[in-house]
Amino acid sequence: MLEKVTDPEKTERQAGQDKPEIHVDIERSAEPEKYRAKREGVFKLEQVSVDYNGALAVSEVSMDVWRNHITALIGPSGCGKSTLIRSFNRMNDLIPAANVEGRILYHGQDLYGDDIDPVEVRKRIGMVFQKPNPFPKSIYDNIAFGPRVLGMEGDMDETVEKALTGAALWDEVKDRLDSNAFGMSGGQQQRLCIARCLAVEPDVILMDEPCSALDPISTGKIEDLMLELKNDYSIVIVTHNMQQAARVSDLTAFLIVELDADEKHRFGRLVEYDETEKIFTNPSDKRTEDYVTGKVG
Ligand code: ADP
Questions:
Q1: Residue 52, Cβ neighbours under 10 Å: how many?
Q2: How far is the CA of 190 from the centre of ligand 1 (A)?
Q3: Is the CB of 82 under 6 A from ligand 1?
Q4: 32-81 pLDDT, tens per residue?
Q5: Which of 63, 189, 256, 285 could lock onto 132 through a cystine, CB 3.0 to 4.6 A?
Q6: Contact 97 CB / ligand 1 (< 6 Å)
Q7: Atom 20 of ligand 1: nearest residue by CA position
Q8: Residue 283 belongs to some domain of the structure
Q9: 41 belongs to a structural domain
Q10: What is the number of the ligand 1 atom nearest to the C-alpha of 53?
Q11: Share of the chain above pLDDT 90, in %
Q12: Whose CA is nearest to atom 19 of ligand 1?
């Protein structure tokens, strides 16, 4: 059973709703800066490798992901960023060829443990994809879908309003909640997908290239939203856009593509993981420097 992470503020907001999960007594300060300084762990990756039918895609990644931080995964195409982020919420379980080795601890619990329900994992650890993927339903029903499927109690109108407000979309759509989500702009659709994540009260939001299909204005809105959301959630983002990583993330992990000994097979490896400012201004590894300065792509 995956333990519930409690947040006093959220718990207060949800007072009156039955929460079946057991609790974890993780202390939460009302002031984000304080717990940011404390660096409370959300994920601990220990030697995580992922292969597809035995072909290694990403090798032996060890890193900590911190609560209320934005963590960016950057690196050249094919270095395993998407593969790695999918292992954070067991999305790789849905790819039959994928096999995850090593250990991922989520608030100290083995995410791949026998007693862990992957559906519960994906509720706690939501995901937003490259291409907005609303359901062919109304805006309202897109948001209400998750809470309904999960049998969450409470006033659905409130849930929908709260999620859309949290995704900075409420004012734009409150008068057309019954309209089909396909009628929204791409940027609005992506914020709808973020709202859909928020509606099931996650702890972590994973974003796999969330802005790559969006124009610069919509991208700016999503980036502003991410900075807002990190007060309540922990965010991991895959981005090929280094400026984006530099603008929004607190920490950055840089991966590269390596060739194996017989120079036939390519796989990703973590080169350096540090404060974003350090990665972009004074990285420890020459390969990081070459990448962030554009010397190699
Ligand atoms: P990135 O996100 O950094 O571009 P990916 O994680 O998409 O990298 O890919 C890393 C490696 O894993 C690549 O060699 C890719 O071909 C392989 N890969 C990714 N997804 C799959 C899949 N579903 N099945 C088989 N191989 C895959």
A1: 14
A2: 23
A3: yes
A4: 455 456 788 999 999 999 999 999 999 999 999 999 999 999 999 999 99
A5: 189
A6: yes
A7: 83
A8: yes
A9: yes
A10: 25
A11: 79
A12: 83
Range of the domain at 43: 4-292
Identify whether the C-beta of residue 138 lies closer than 8 Å to the C-beta of residue 177: yes
Residue 161 scores a pLDDT above 60 = yes
The model's pLDDT over 104-152, given as tens digits with 9 standing for 90+, comes to 999 999 999 999 998 899 899 999 999 999 999 999 999 999 999 989 9
Q: Under a CB-based contact definition with an 8 Å cutoff, are residues 188 and 179 in contact? A: no
What's residue 294's pLDDT?
86
**47 CB burial (10 A radius; 0-12, 13-18, 19+):** exposed
Exposed e or buried b for every residue in 191-228, given b needs 16+ CB within 10 A? Answer: bbbbbbbbbbbbbbbbbbbbbebbeeebbebbbebbee
Asked if the model's pLDDT at residue 15 lies above 70, the reply is: no
Instruction: Give yes or no for a contact between 224 and 166, defined as CB atoms under 8 angstroms apart.
Output: no
Query: Where residue 195 sits, what CATH number does that domain have?
Result: 3.40.50.300
Whether 94 is in the pocket of ligand 1, judged by its Cβ within 6 Å, is no
Whether 95 is in the pocket of ligand 1, judged by its Cβ within 6 Å, is yes
Please give the tally of structural domains in the chain: 1
Q: How far is the CA of 82 from the centre of ligand 1 (A)?
A: 7
Give the residue whose CA is nearest to atom 21 of ligand 1.
Answer: 52
Write the residue with the smallest CA distance to atom 15 of ligand 1.
78
Residue 278 located in a structural domain: yes
Examine residue 130 and state whether it is found in any structural domain, yes or no: yes
Could you tell me if the CB of 37 is within 6 A of ligand 1?
no
